[in-house]
Design brief:
Blueprint (H helix, E strand, L loop, with lengths): L1 E7 L3 H12 L4 E4 L15 E2 L3 H9 L3 H20 L4 E10 L2 H18 L8 E3 L1 H7 L8 E10 L1 H14 L3 E3 L2 E9 L2 E9 L5 E11 L5 H8 L7 E11 L9 E4 L8 E6 L2 E5 L3 E2 L10 H14 L8 E12 L23 E5 L5 E5 L5 H16 L19 H16 L4 H11 L3 H5 L19 H10 L5 H8 L2 H4 L1 H18 L10
Parallel strand pairs: 1-2, 1-10, 2-7, 4-12, 10-18
Antiparallel strand pairs: 3-6, 4-6, 5-6, 8-9, 9-10, 11-14, 11-15, 11-16, 12-13, 13-14, 17-18
Length: 521
């Protein structure tokens, strides 16, 4: 069987391409070498945002591209907050100010940020007096007033997963732990790929009319597979994050540290009753993208101590790193330019759709918030190769766990909360709704006994029923899949995740014999 489109990569962009393609009537196969969202797409700062820093750069450098990126991202922020209200919510952040000039500067900038959001705005920025700042952030260094503005906070790994599951529900064939080992050709043009099931070693050919590369920081490897003479187009920029045991944001307002000694910005955010701190922006080889360094951790902690001197020594309970796939100029796509690395903090977070003579389409660059426009731009190239326009979707396609209309989703969640709350603890109900939305009851239905609906951890109330659901319906195949991406326990408290690993593995061992290979679909 030959499909219209083979998508390589199961991160936010690849999953979005698969969903938007199948909505437009294409037959689609998606292959992912690891788990859904295993790479950068689960390792973000967990923010849906336009990028206040990019807006400032746009005006400082008169860079229209930065301004366009911010406007597009703000529109997409609004889209996701409406589409998946159980996974994403509005979060207010404070830009601290030490005087009238700073206050006026940030106030004008954030007013423009609000304006660029247009009809998808989620709340106007506002001035906070010193007393209000101290109420929201009681351990912040004294003397600051500030300007508060709104962005979105979300569960990146689960949104990625639910986009992929929605695509699969519409007919896309999704294969995880399936690596592309060779690209097939007919008369010099790509016609599919040879893929290997990394669990069984089985190989087979997948025939496709168009092949699209959405592998993030791994895109250059697929490009070289299509054309060995291609130079690099991407530079990996590692960002590390720390989760602190203490709650530095008890009022629910996060902090944007607007300027560090080296010109970066940092976020201090509420996160499951703890504190998320990030991020760095360090050029690195692709192989080191997911490894936090001691130097970067020390860097982040130094700013925590500086801005929260009353807190005492911060205790780190989890850490992770992920790399942004930043675009190099097209002139860098030659072997001679391979060693040149740009200053990553100033590179525009825009995306590009490249088409090689072999027919390989690569969607590169961009950011999590704009994965949907990236997918739609990629599909324009797909339509051109197929030689026909793609059909327009018949109507909105809700993400699994939501309804078409945001208000319908909210009403359904409220009713479900009341129903589940009559028999289950509030913390468990909130966890299930925040992770699965209107599918929460389907999770509990996977329990083999009443005991399997009881929380396994006081940090994140994961249950045995949820583990079984993750294997049966969400392609989970390892304890890391469950503990880090199907729920966020690993990101919140890595030691607690390790404590639960044997129990999760026991449940996986019970479920896995019946799941079949990754290539079975």
């Amino acid at each position: 069987m030959t499909v219209d489109l083979l998508v390589i990569g199961g991160g936010a962009t690849g999953a979005s391409v698969a969903l938007e393609a199948v909505r437009r009537g294409l037959s689609v196969t998606l292959v992912e070498a690891g788990d859904i969202a295993q790479g950068t797409s689960s390792r973000s700062t967990k923010l849906l945002h336009g990028g206040v820093r990019y807006l400032e750069l746009a005006f400082r450098r008169l860079d229209w591209r930065q301004l366009q990126l911010v406007r597009e991202a703000l529109g997409e922020r609004g889209h996701w907050l409406e589409a998946v209200p159980f996974l994403a919510h509005r979060l207010e952040l404070l830009l601290p100010t030490a005087g009238f000039i700073q206050q006026a500067y940030y106030g004008i900038g954030l007013g423009l940020y609000d304006l660029l959001a247009g009809r998808r705005g989620i709340g106007a920025s506002r001035w906070l007096a010193r007393g209000t700042v101290q109420q929201q952030l009681p351990e912040l260094a004294p003397g600051y007033s500030g300007v508060a503005y709104s962005d979105g906070q979300f569960d990146d790994a689960r949104l990625n997963l639910l986009i992929a599951r929605t695509a699969a529900g519409l007919g896309a064939s999704v294969h995880t732990r399936t690596r592309v080992v060779e690209l097939l050709r007919q008369q010099g043009r790509l016609s599919g790929a040879v893929v290997e099931d990394l669990q069984t070693g089985e190989r087979r050919e997948l025939q496709a009319r168009v092949v699209l590369n959405a592998t993030g920081i791994g895109a250059d490897a697929i490009r070289r597979m299509a054309d060995p003479d291609q130079g690099p187009r991407l530079q990996a920029s590692r960002g590390i994050h720390l989760v602190l045991k203490g709650n530095l944001c008890p009022g629910g307002t996060g902090l944007l540290i607007p300027a560090t000694d080296d010109g970066r910005v940092l976020f201090v955010l509420p996160f499951f009753g703890r504190t998320l701190v990030g991020t760095t922006d360090t050029s690195c080889p692709v192989g080191e993208a997911n490894a936090p360094s001691a130097e970067e951790e020390a860097y982040l902690l130094s700013y925590v101590r500086r801005w929260f001197p009353q807190h005492g020594e911060p205790q780190v309970c989890s850490r992770w790193a992920g790399a942004r796939p930043l675009l190099r100029p097209a002139s860098a796509a030659s072997p001679a330019a391979a060693g040149a690395a740009p200053e990553t903090s100033t590179v525009v977070r825009e995306h590009e759709v490249e088409q090689l003579p072999s027919g390989l389409i690569s969607v590169m660059g961009g950011k999590w918030t704009t994965c949907r426009p990236m997918a739609l731009d990629g599909l324009k190239a797909v339509a051109a190769q197929l030689g026909r326009p793609l059909a327009e979707p018949a109507g909105p396609t809700p993400i699994l766990g939501a309804e078409e209309e945001p208000e319908s989703t909210r009403r359904g969640l409220a009713a479900l909360e009341q129903r589940l709350g009559a028999v289950h603890p509030p913390a468990l109900v909130q966890h299930l709704l925040a992770s699965h939305g209107l599918e929460a009851e389907a999770v509990l239905a996977c329990a083999a006994s009443a005991q399997e609906r009881e929380p396994l951890s006081p940090v994140i109330p994961l249950t045995a029923a949820e583990v079984r659901h993750a294997v049966r319906h969400e392609w989970a195949r390892s304890s890391d899949d469950v503990l880090w991406r199907r729920c966020r326990l690993g990101f919140v408290d890595s030691a607690e995740a390790e404590r639960l690993r044997p129990e999760v593995q026991r449940l996986l061992d019970q479920e896995l014999p019946a799941t079949g290979s990754a290539l079975s679909g």
